[in-house]
Design a protein that fits this description.
Helix content is about 30%, strand content about 15%. It is built from 19 helices and 28 strands. The strands form eight sheets. Strands 10-11-8-15-16-17 form a six-stranded antiparallel beta sheet, with no helix packed on it. The protein has a four-stranded mixed beta sheet with strand order 18-21-20-19, with helices on one face. The chain has a four-stranded mixed beta sheet with strand order 22-25-24-23, with no helix packed on it. A hairpin with a 2-residue loop joins strand 10 (about 530-540) and strand 11 (about 540-545). Helix 3 packs antiparallel against helix 5 and helix 7 runs antiparallel to helix 8 (about 195-210). It is globular, with a radius of gyration of 28 Å. The termini are far apart. It catalyses: Endohydrolysis of (1->4)-beta-D-glucosidic linkages in cellulose, lichenin and cereal beta-D-glucans. It is an enzyme of class 3 (hydrolase).
Length: about 800
């Protein structure tokens, strides 16, 4: 890197005083960590490239209560709810920063990761857009979820899904989602134009929905009222969404939409008054970023005045004694978040200015001061980014990371590192306490990291990055696998009761544990389990998990126990082995344990140097792109280079996964994939990943594409959409019946809609279904379908 000469000069000084000051200007390293936080927040089925070892699939039936697939997206904060309004706001800031400060991401080698983070969110938002005027905006019930303290993988309570539509609209939610998709279009338009076009199409539709049916989204989703109510109303999102679409399309009609609100003579005390904002942007308030963006797009004076007035206000705002931007009311909860938000719009405006401009230098100095404060240049000498420094918070308010059954439970520090999370921050006097129960100072959330992440890219692009020395302290990224053992003692009383104890050694810690035992060959049957949770039982096999307060295994040999009783059937033999799940049944590593000190070994997985194993090579060197989901557009090294390191998790080279298949990879010493999913492409051919190993895409996958069907005529062509090839109806509005093919809306052809002249049995109580509607229920009346979430009768 170009900063190596600086590193050589500074490295000795940094190593000389490691405990005196935690401050860091390695914005690239912190950027990598910040994007890891978004990976830790993912919901749904996780990709094979997942880098967060303590995260597994969760909430995989999201939307099932309403018959829709709402997998994906991210949990909001330390809870397990997907609140789409703040999630969309965070994604818009991330996507815009990737568009505007792309070189910063690339210089930090995080370009593929920011694209993955954005696409994980936009894929989810596209799923949520289930009708032209229908958008799901939340999965999970806030009060129900916040009454529980469990990891997302261990959820057993309901997580209902909620939507807005024409009858209960939400302009704030729909317009912010449109803004995020329009910003994503700008990111992907060169690397993946087809996907970019899909994002833009949904953005346009959602903005039209937001503008046509105006209301606040909590009308349709009242459960969000107590968590993310839009106090600023929805006019700011309508301007923000219009500005982003103006940037993406150049369509002046969006400027007219923004100006209709901008120029309206609201009273200054009206909640919809748009100009002269006195505060920073937030998940709720989009006024200031709208000022900056409208000026960036047009360069006109009326927008410039608002953009610069607001930036000057932020730069000269009150701060803590140590220099953190601070508002007495707002900053009481998540001060680091608001300092970053205040600086983000200043960075937007600074990006329009000449490098020699004195005011620009003042702006950049302010931005850098806020980030440097967060990264350790503060009176508390704390780097507020989890996992960045030994001084970083260790007890942020986060269920999954805690590894405990209660926010106040032992241990007081989190068992699992939530790398990259930006902790809430200090009070107005720079005081900070690392306490899991204090969500004012130790909350983490999607919106906390959003502006901060973008500012890191901005500062790197400004040439201000100063690399830190290699981080070798215990707990630094990447996490290392422990070599400790799991011990299981049965402690049989010689009659019919066992008091098993579980412990770990060698620094192997477990945030929760379960024991799986099979009594079939013992000559006894299970009678009862207590002192722990009987998670499941199938015949003589059972799984018992840690009881309350017994979940943490400290790696120092401290024993935790439970009890079980059996019914002997004649002579009885003690079990000789069992499975122990370190970190719980649903997200833990499975070990085969020989009882009473016989040793333990991984079962069904291979231990590597790092955790998870695939993120490092055989020498423990971190593989920079090991977590990239889609390497097909990666500018990194070839699969051959990466393959030798990924294969460290196997004891021998992978055999061809399908002996009968043929592919180019066999000549290079790799197997052929069993499927056709492409993860990476280079000059050799298309590569996939199976069982943690690179494999070549079989020749049989490279079939000639099917010729495109001749386009049919239907009402949709006049509206800019294609006609469907089939007749399956997904949505109906005043224009006609719509289907979805290849992720895009299409119009149902006239030939599909020919119905008998006679009325169907369901009228007048329910309408007749359009032709081609699938049967979902049948009773004595006839066959029923569903259109627009209501029953309809299928004509015989």
């Amino acid at each position: 890197m170009k900063f190596q000469s600086v590193l050589k000069v500074l490295s000795g000084l940094v190593f000389t005083f490691p405990s005196v000051y935690a401050k860091s200007q390695d914005y690239a390293r912190h950027l990598e960590l910040s994007l890891l936080f978004y990976e830790a927040q993912r919901s749904g089925p996780l990709p094979a490239s997942n880098r967060i070892f303590w995260r597994k699939d969760s909430m995989t039936d999201a939307g099932a209560d309403n018959g829709v697939d709402l997998n994906g997206g991210c949990n909001d904060a330390g809870d397990n709810v997907k609140f789409n309004f703040p999630q969309a706001g965070a994604l818009t800031l991330l996507a815009f920063s990737a568009y505007k400060w792309q070189e910063g991401y690339k210089e930090a080698e995080q370009w593929e990761y920011i694209k993955d983070a954005i696409k994980w969110g936009t894929d989810y938002f596209i799923k949520c857009h289930t009708g032209k005027n229908e958008l799901y905006g939340q999965v999970g019930n806030g009060s129900l979820d916040h009454g529980e303290w469990v990891a997302p993988e261990d959820m057993t309570y309901e997580h209902p899904s909620y939507k807005i539509d024409a009858s209960a609209p939400g302009s704030d939610l729909a317009a912010e989602t449109a803004a995020s998709l329009a910003a994503a279009y700008l990111v992907f338009k060169d690397d993946d134009p087809a996907y970019a076009a899909t994002c833009l199409k949904h953005a346009k539709e959602l903005y039209e929905f937001a503008d046509k049916y105006q209301d606040t989204y909590t009308t349709g989703i009242p459960d969000a009222q107590g968590y993310y109510r839009s106090y600023s109303g929805f006019k700011d999102e309508l301007v923000w969404g219009a500005a982003m679409l103006l940037l993406a399309t150049g369509d002046e009609s969006y400027r007219a939409k923004a100006d209709a609100i901008w120029d309206y003579p609201y009273n200054k005390h009206d909640p919809d008054y748009f100009l002269n904002s006195g505060g920073p942007i937030s998940w709720d308030d989009k006024k200031a970023c709208s000022y900056a963006l409208m000026y960036m797009v047009t360069g006109e004076d009326k927008y410039k005045e608002q953009a610069f007035n607001h930036s000057d206000l932020m730069v000269n705002y009150k701060t803590t004694p140590g220099g953190l931007w601070f508002d007495t009311n707002l900053s009481a909860w998540g001060s680091n978040r608001y300092a970053s938000n205040a600086a983000y719009t200043v960075a937007m405006v600074a990006s329009t200015m000449d490098a020699s401009d004195a005011k620009r230098k003042q702006y950049v100095k302010f931005i850098q001061k806020q980030i440097d404060y967060i990264q350790g240049d503060n009176p508390a000498k704390v780097d507020y980014v989890v996992g960045a420094d030994p001084s970083s918070p260790k007890s942020v308010h986060h269920r999954g990371s805690s590894g405990t059954m209660n926010a106040m439970a032992e241990p007081p520090f989190n068992v699992f590192p939530l790398y990259g999370a930006l902790a809430g921050g200090p009070d107005g006097n720079d005081k900070y306490t690392d306490d899991r129960t204090n969500y004012n100072s130790n909350e983490v959330a999607l919106d906390y990291n959003a502006a901060y992440t973008g500012l890191l890219a901005f500062l790197i692009q400004e040439g201000l990055n100063v690399p830190d020395p290699e981080q070798t302290w215990e707990g630094a990224w990447p996490p290392k696998e422990k070599d400790g053992e799991i011990n299981l003692k049965l402690n049989f009383n010689g009659s019919n009761e066992f008091t098993p104890t579980v412990s770990t050694t060698g620094g192997l810690t477990c945030g929760g544990w379960c024991v799986e035992m099979d009594l079939t060959s013992t000559g006894a049957t299970l009678d009862n389990v207590w002192g722990g949770e009987l998670l499941k039982q199938e015949g003589n096999k059972f799984v018992a998990c840690a009881g309350w307060g017994k979940g943490y295994l400290d790696g120092k040999g401290t024993e935790q126990n439970f009890y079980f009783r059996v019914k002997p059937n004649g002579s009885m033999k003690e079990p000789t082995e069992a499975f122990v799940y370190c970190n719980g049944y649903n997200r833990g590593d499975k070990y085969l344990v020989k009882v009473n000190g016989g040793g333990s070994e991984p079962y069904g997985w291979t231990k590597g140097i790092c955790k998870p194993a695939h993120i490092c090579d055989a020498n423990g060197n971190y593989i920079k792109d090991s977590g990239v989901i889609n390497k097909s557009t990666s500018g990194g090294s070839s699969p051959k280079t990466k393959t030798t390191t990924i294969k460290k998790t196997t004891t021998k080279a992978a055999e061809p996964t399908s002996p009968s298949s043929s592919c180019f990879a066999t000549k290079l010493g790799y197997g052929c994939c069993t499927g056709c999913e492409v993860n990476y492409t280079d000059d050799d051919g298309a590569w996939g990943i199976e069982n943690g190993n690179w494999c070549g895409i079989p020749d049989s996958c490279n079939k000639e594409p099917e010729p495109e069907p001749v386009k049919d005529e239907c009402f949709a062509t006049k509206l800019g959409y294609d006609c469907c090839s089939g007749c399956d109806v997904n949505y109906t509005d005043g224009d006609g019946a719509w289907g979805i093919e290849n992720g895009n809306w299409c119009g149902i052809k006239d030939s599909c809609s020919s119905t008998p002249s006679t009325k169907c049995f369901s009228e007048p109580d329910y309408p007749c279904c359009p032709s081609g509607t699938a049967t979902v229920y049948t009773d004595e009346s006839g066959a029923w379908g569903v259109i627009n979430n209501d029953w309809c009768g299928i004509s015989a």
